[in-house]
Amino acid sequence: MNPSKLAATMALGVFVVLASCKKNEDPKLSPTPIPSPTPGAYSSLSKAFEEVAPKSKTVSINAAVGGTFYGNSGTRYMFMPNSFINSSGAVVTGNVDIEVLECTNEADMIFAKMLPMSRGEMLYSGGEIRVRASQAGFSLNIRPGYRYTVKMPTNAGASTAGMDLFRGVESTINRGSVVDWAILKDSTTGGIIYDGDTIIMTPDSVGFTNCDKYAAYSKVSVDVKLDGTGATIDSNNVYAYFLPEGFLSAVSLYGTSFVSNTMKSCSVPMLKSHLVACTVVGGNFYAGYLSGVTPSSGTTYTISLSKTTPTAFKTAISTLK
User: Fold this and answer.
1) Which pLDDT tens digit goes with each residue over 11-52?
2) Where are the domains of the chain?
3) The domain 54-214: what is its CATH number?
4) What secondary structure does DSSP assign to 142-199, as a single string?
């Protein structure tokens, strides 16, 4: 991070990084003192995440007429007339409630626990959505042969080239995520169109939808040490992430074991990246990140976790590019 960006980040009261490596230490990654915001009391990391998770939006439309509306991120949704069915397959009439949630940046993906990962592997994303439809509390889906349209502004830039439509299923296979993604190879189930800085998706079902492509990379094994809490960290109460520079992605970082606050033998892409971590110790929220890292095999990277707030942590992640 250049000096001007660093100054701006500190002005927001956001933590910065203390980084060290057992070998190949980068002199540019030096300790910097930071202010410590007064935190709240958190019983778990999940409780801290709930404080800043992106919010969904619920809109009611007439099923027979269809409708269009915008989500909280500026994403536009368009539903065709008579396009909803109930669990029996009958076409629904009357008002239906549609709940939408968008993740258009790494911070939202992390705090919504909707990481762009497929069976543990990293994906490059153009943006993610979750759509739920219901009537009188009963779940609805999209009528066979029908689709709805999603126009999502994207910050992914040139990396959107070659992306496909992915569908997500609820899964805990990826640590720190509630969804696993799989490509939709059948064009009848939906597709994507590029329109400048907007991605147009046409899914044929509600649920999780993502504009993605598989990332190409080699992996190396590294250790990641978490320092600064003054206590032993519970391995079940810590999340760490790998954010590749220049791409919209955030994947969980974990090792084969967690010993002395160190994630041992983490398999990570050999790409220039940010390493990010957070935990809750004694009711306090701790977080930190390490920027400009190109992982080198056998190296131990140390992230200094500072006492901060989930809001400050989210702001800091948003500055990482």
Assistant:
1) 334 343 434 444 444 433 433 334 455 556 899 999 999 999
2) 3-35+217-319, 54-214
3) 2.60.220.30
4) EPTT---EEEEE---GGGGTT-EEEEEEE--SSTT-SEEEEE---GGG--EEEETTEE
